[in-house]
Amino acid sequence: MFDFRYYTPTKVVFGRNTESQVADLIREAGGTKVLIHYGGGSVVRSGLLQKVTDCLNAAGIPHVSLGGAVPNPRLGLVLEGIELCRREKVDFLLAVGGGSCIDSAKAIGYGVTNEGDVWDFYDYRRKATACLPLGVILTIAATGSEMSDSSVITREEGLIKRGYSSDLGRPRFAIMNPELTMTLPDYQTACGCADIMMHTMERYFTNGGNMEITDSIAEGLLRTVMANAEILVRDPRNYDARAEIMWAGSLSHNGLTGCGNDGGDWMTHKLEHELGGLYDVAHGAGLTALWGSWARYVYQNCLPRFKKYALRVMGVEDLGTDEEIALKGIEATEDFFRRIHMPTNLRELGVNATEEDLITMAHKCAVGVKGAKGSARLLREEDMLAILKASM
Ligand code: NZQ
Ligand code: ZN
């Protein structure tokens, strides 16, 4: 077991109608002029944006708004947001939506409070020294960005998708009303469930410093997400299932499922970020399309973990060799992805990549991780290419 720091400063306000507390929460956090940041319009159609602006108006909190954060959010809009915040003297950011608008808001927060090009942080050239305070009203359970230290942005030039992590960007509060996720298309609900699982799995399949308490939390979380994701396939308006998944999404990526280990593997995520950058696919679907190929490539180097996962998460019988059990666990995971209508290879994802595209993605990924990365198995550019080819 490794030493660790666990820091989750985000105040969580969970349950029905909790969005009506937004003005009080902004006040508590010291906000006096707010930028409301949102996505492509789902919050306009659902009436949530109107409800939020009504709350701020009633509380006398001045605000401006900026919509348009797209899935795989773009640097261009971040720059626009930075300009707007400076011009309007905004001192608090409110993201109303999913991971894309939260991440975009975090980037705006770094840009407003630090001189120079905000992309420097995402390009690992320097570290941010501040961020505007940020609050979230979450409308999709998926990335965990509502409690996480990460923000993932795509630069249009070169279609480069990169993440930046800093405790400074962790939201001050996260309002989570499971009912707000009921307007989601089924595909996005499933993508979110897949992403939540992957945030825990990235931390589970490691070769360093595992802890039983962390494993038990992770395994329980994975079983809970799977059971409730299947309920939502049949019954998308099931409040309890949406609530279980929403809370799991936050716990999956706020550090809890990684305490004591070596920080996680993260190579499925790194490869997916290349897919997202180049083909603009939904993040969760990109992950499931790659995971099986990654798992089969690395499982022998992390066999005890794959066996434990097969037995304790996927319910595989303890019969046969460790390798056979591990492989059954991988197959059972892919079967689950299919049951929630998620792709298990790039073709099912709708990506018809050429050999040249695969080479480009492997190269960009290797550059992004500075040569090699992975805890289940350390992967270099040639390994990344092999996994991408296997996922076709
Ligand atoms: O843009 P709108 O119109 O709001 O529509 C969105 C979008 O089309 C829609 N949606 C969200 N809530 C809805 C809804 N539609 C109807 N009803 C609702 N209640 O769903 C679509 C997806 O939204 P998005 O915010 O893109 O989804 P998600 O939360 O999955 O975010 C994905 C982004 O986050 C990054 C991903 O790479 C991707 O760019 N990630 C961020 C992480 C973090 N910050 O910690 C970690 C993750 O691993 C991930 O990389
Ligand atoms: Zn993710």
Structural descriptors:
Dehydroquinate synthase-like, alpha domain, single chain, 16 helices, 392 residues, globular, alpha/beta, 2 domains, two-stranded antiparallel ribbon, Rossmann fold, binds 5,6-dihydroxy-NADP, binds zinc ion, six-stranded parallel sheet
Describe it.
The two termini are 37 Å apart. Strands 1-8-5-4-2-3 form a 6-stranded parallel β-sheet, sandwiched between helices. A two-stranded antiparallel ribbon has the order 6-7. It has 16 helices and 8 strands. Helix content is 50%, strand content 10%. By secondary structure, it is α/β, with parallel strands linked by helices. The protein has 2 domains: 11-180, Rossmann fold (3-Layer(aba) Sandwich), CATH 3.40.50; 184-390, Dehydroquinate synthase-like, alpha domain (Up-down Bundle). Zinc ion binds at residues 143, 195, 198-199, 269, 283.
Count of DSSP strands: 8
CATH superfamily of the largest domain: Dehydroquinate synthase-like - alpha domain
- Oligomer status: single chain
Beta-strand proportion? 5-15%
| Level-2 CATH architecture of the largest domain | Up-down Bundle
Global mean pLDDT:
97
Q: Spans of 5+ residues with little confidence (pLDDT < 50)? A: none
